[in-house]
Specification:
This protein is α+β, with helices and mostly antiparallel strands. It folds into 2 domains: 277 residues, Porin, CATH 2.40.160.20; 106 residues, 60s Ribosomal Protein L30, Chain: A (2-Layer Sandwich). Helix content is 20%, strand content 26%. It is built from 7 helices and 13 strands. An 8-stranded antiparallel barrel has the order 1-2-3-4-5-7-8-9. Strands 10-13-11-12 form a 4-stranded mixed β-sheet. Helix 1 crosses helix 4 and helix 3 runs parallel beside helix 4. The relative contact order is 0.09.
């Protein structure tokens, strides 16, 4: 990972925890602008139930950690309820309440001889046991360890492998706080189960309330989006030595009594329809942060590409569809060399920049003309014209073997709008073909004849026809340098109309003059 990303991780992890919590708590419509997101806020509440084994760490007991079954069963049970509110993905507040059954015994078979000696010297010379029903509750700070400490390497491995990290299923947690304990111990003889009454020993069997501090650690499994199951171990430190009904300052040991719980837990994650179905405790802040880092890396890569122009054509590589454009060529917005006729030859190298679409061309962009008659192959209706023959715009010979041009050869007409003498751009191709014949047939002359429709006077129509003729003649002279002496003109009025359709009469005809 880059150094800047590591620094970003260190600076942002605390802020990200806070933002996740704020996003989870705020209603969608009430969010400040900096928290507006397309995602729903996460669930933050859960209610759970737990139960398991209880073991006393008191003066009267057989073993330190695992209870005995004889002379009495020291492995008793407890059950409880808990409610947790997460402030962010790592920390929350938890209420716990439970009912615990405690039982511990002492006789001459106690495992540790030192413990036997101390209690025998205090006056306990017979086998006794205590039983205590304990009610406890507490308010605790809850810490999701996995969301704070673990998970970084998992995201780094996924990034290195270019895969998406799998959702986390296991989580470690701790909690501690302060609460109250209500209990009523009973001390009895093992042999006859009657209340113990030993000379010189003052058993404290009154009902009592004391402060306690629970310290717990556990692990849980994200079974479904609604349910977690887990296992926890809790040490309960009680601010009294009366939990077993016997006050004794045991040398070298903590004076106050303790008891432990080994619990199986089940938590139900709760929320409403406006919230995500995911609980915030399973959203790892570092994961969100690494996702953001990956996104920023991708943006940085795209920005670098956006600023790069390897072929120096003025179009960044990000948009350039041809990053190897030859230097000096003009390009369009996509970085491809301009090619007006789309024949694959750039305009600056194309000797025929307006070739017909689909025409076969040579390396210079010129339409192929295999029989060299001046008409490209794709328009040539006579593919193998004899060398020297004159042809029309379709490549068909118009010259006899005697060298005399046949009469009646007519080129495509040029049509005009009503009362207009302006040549439409759509006729550029037709005029190009006509001009090509004029340039090739240098010994021939041509006549341009103008026509008009029936509207207007004959005198006006003749003038309009003449303007149309002159427009075509001037176009050929200016664009193709045709010698004006080779072009004759004539204008016809209403009396010379040859079609009942007005649109057809508004035209100019160009014909080859018979030699």
């Amino acid at each position: 990972m880059k150094l800047k990303n590591l620094l970003l991780l260190a600076i942002s992890i605390l802020i990200l925890n806070v933002n996740l919590a704020q996003t989870a708590d705020l209603k969608q419509e009430d969010k400040p602008s900096r928290f507006i997101t397309d995602e729903k806020p996460f669930k933050t509440w859960s209610i759970g139930f737990y139960g398991g084994l209880v073991h006393p760490l008191t003066d009267i007991r057989y073993k330190d950690w695992f209870g005995t079954l004889d002379p009495v069963n020291e492995n008793q049970w407890n059950a409880g309820i808990k409610v947790t509110k997460m402030f962010d993905a790592a920390f929350g507040l938890q209420f716990r309440g439970s009912y615990n059954v405690l039982q511990g015994a002492f006789d001459t078979l106690v495992v540790h001889r030192e413990d036997r000696n101390y209690l025998e010297n205090s006056g306990i010379t017979e086998g006794i046991y205590f039983r205590n029903n304990v009610l406890s509750s507490s308010i605790n700070i809850y810490w999701n360890i996995s969301n704070t400490v673990f998970g970084t390497n998992r995201y780094l491995k996924a990034k290195a492998a270019k895969t998406t990290p799998k959702p986390r299923k296991f989580s470690l947690f701790m909690f501690t706080g302060v609460g109250g304990t209500w209990f009523d111990p009973h001390v009895m003889f093992v042999e006859n189960k009657t209340p113990a009454d030993l000379t010189g020993v003052d058993f404290q069997t009154d009902q009592t309330f004391e402060i306690n501090i629970p310290i717990g650690i556990g692990a849980k499994f994200n079974m479904t989006k609604a349910i977690d199951i887990g296992l926890e171990y809790v040490i309960n430190y009680v601010f009294t030595d009366k939990l077993d009904g016997f006050i004794f300052n045991h040398p070298g040991r903590i004076k106050n009594d303790l008891y432990t719980n080994l619990n199986f837990t089940m938590d139900f994650k709760i929320g409403n329809k406006k919230q995500s179905d995911q609980h915030i405790e399973w959203v790892q802040p570092t994961g969100k942060l690494y996702e953001e880092i990956v996104r920023l890396d991708e943006i940085e890569r795209k920005l670098k590409k956006l600023m790069q122009d390897d072929d120096e054509d003025g179009v960044s590589d990000f948009f350039d569809k041809d990053i190897n454009t030859e230097k000096g060529l003009l390009v369009d917005g996509s970085g491809q060399a301009l090619d007006s006729d789309k024949d694959g030859v750039p305009d600056q190298k194309d000797q025929e920049p307006f070739s017909d679409f689909g025409a076969e061309i040579d390396l210079n962009g010129v339409s192929l003309d295999d029989d060299l008659d001046g008409v490209p192959n794709h328009k040539d209706q006579e593919k193998n014209t004899k060398a020297g023959n004159l042809v029309n715009f379709q490549g068909v010979s118009i010259q006899s073997e005697m060298g005399v041009v046949s009469s009646g050869i007519v080129y495509p007409s040029i049509y005009f709008d009503p009362d207009q003498a302006t040549i439409k751009a759509s006729y550029a191709e037709d005029l190009f073909l006509i001009a090509s014949d004029m340039l090739r047939l240098t010994d021939n002359k041509f006549i341009i004849t103008g026509h008009c429709d029936q509207k207007g006077s004959d005198e006006y129509n003749i003038k309009l026809a003449h303007r149309r003729v002159e427009a075509v003649k001037l176009y050929l002279i200016e664009n193709y340098k045709i010698d004006p002496a080779r072009i004759k003109t004539e204008a016809k009025g209403k009396s010379a109309q040859d079609s009942p359709i007005a649109d057809i009469n508004r035209r100019v005809d160009i014909s080859l003059i018979q030699n």
